[in-house]
Amino acid sequence: MSRNELDVLRKRIDELNDRLLEIINERAALVQRIGELKKAQGAQPYDPVREREILNRIKEKNNGPFKTETLQHLFKEILKASLELQEDDRREALLVSRERKSSDTTIEINGEKIGDGKQRLIAGPCAVESYEQTRQVAEQLKKHGIKIMRGGAFKPRTSPYDFQGLGVEGLKILRRVADEFGLAVVSEIVSPADIELAEEYVDVIQIGARNMQNFELLKAAGRSSKPVLLKRGLAATIDEYMKAAEYVFSAGNENIILCERGIRTFERATRNTLDISAVPVLKQETHLPVFVDVTHATGRRDLLIPTAKAAMAVGADGVMVEVHPDPSVALSDSAQQMDFDLFDRFVSELKGCGLHTTV
Ligand SMILES: [Mn+2]
Predict the structure, then answer these.
(1) Considering its fold, how many domains does the chain have in total?
(2) Ligand 1 centroid – CA 151 distance (Å)
């Protein structure tokens, strides 16, 4: 083969590559158009029957020199890339995403605008245990100018033998105390049937980590008029977390606060591993306010101040923390709740980092 002939053949290869490139992209544009039509019809992007037809057609038409299996493999890669193209288009369409709404969502709670750039604290006992215990905590919040109190009435516990919470009685205590001290309350609801009941007593419905993918609960909360604080699941990816928020948003409730609370890893020094980078990722990817629950992320009282500072440094809209009049006898999470002395120090250190309070 002469040097000249090789050059000629290579030139033809280049031309064929150019045509292949053009054809593949022309095909991709058609795939996108089909994706739009399917979306309008509510159909799924992936259709296994159609994919089988395409592969069979390759078998019928193939005259070599490539083996049919080789060609089918190549086409499968094209099909896979095409599907990803359609799914990318769908991802862009998430209502909770920045692409859909570039400005920050703010949520009005008790005269405060969560997500307005000021960094706030939500604090309170792990569980409501009694009127007196809840009242003592509320007094501390009032003293520090904190407007939102947390407190569990329905407690989804790892063991069925652990304290399960006071239920509706707990919600009633929370409401009574909140009204006495001018606070808003956040409390977890675990059953879709209780959402309506909760509206009577709470200002913000919390959906806990273990229920992040309880889709019926998410839909019920989505139909509620109360804002929702949605915690990240203990083994949920950010993509799964955003889709959980999408369940609430697409059902009609746009007032969602996200809350990173640590994820499960191999590490045992802390109860969970605080995924601090999730905060800026969620701030970039969504328009929703993002909080960090440092109590459950660490499970360690001695790490609450440094991790809360870290949360504020990476741009969280607020921090959530547990405080109890006498943590050593608390009915739940006794190892990680703060007593009032530590809480005083916690608040004053965070104020030094820009925490917003009303006093
Ligand atoms: Mn707790």
Answers:
(1) 2
(2) 9
